[in-house]
Amino acid sequence: MENCYQPASQRRAIYPDEPASQMLDWSAIAICIGAFLYALTGFVSGASPKTIVAEPLAPLTANQPSIIGNAFAVDALPNLGRPSYLKGPVALYGSFLGGSGDSTGSVTSAVYPAVPDFYMFVSGYPNRPGNRLLLEVETTNHQKTIQQVAPFEDTGGKWLLKRISLRAIEGAKSFRILATDANKGSDGWVGFSLPFLDRQSGGRTGLLIVKQIWFTLLAMAASMAALWAPGFMLRREWLRVRHHLFSPVWIALPGLLSLALLGLAAWIAIDKIGTHQIAPRLICRVPLMIFFAIALVYFFRIRLSSMVTGSEMRLLAVTLAVIAIAAGKSMYSLGPVGELFHGEVSRTLEIGGRSDSRLPYHVTQLIGKHQLPTSPFARELYGTWTFSDRGQLAALAAAPLVLTGATRMPDHKPEDAWTVFDPQGFTAYRCAMIAFAASTLFFVYGVSQLFLPDSWALLACLVTATSPFFIHEIFFTWPKLEAAAFALLSAYLVVRFRFLLGGLALGLGYMCHPSALLSTPAILGLLLLLPRREGTDNTALWRRAVEMVVRAAVVMAGLAFWLVLWRMANQPNYTQTQFLGFAFASGRLVRTPGNWLRFRLDSLLNTLVPLNQFFFHSTDENINAVEGPSPGIVRFFVQPWSTVPAGAGFLYFLCLLRMVYLAAVRRPGWMLALLAIPLLVFTAYMGVDRSGMLKEGLHAWFITLMIFSVVMWWQSRHETRWFWRLCALALLTRVLDLLGMMIVPVVATQHAIVEPPFVLSDVMALVLMVGGAIWLCWYTYRVAMGLSDKPAKTPDGDERLPFHRALSR
Question: Is the pTM of this model over 0.70?
Answer without folding.
Answer: yes
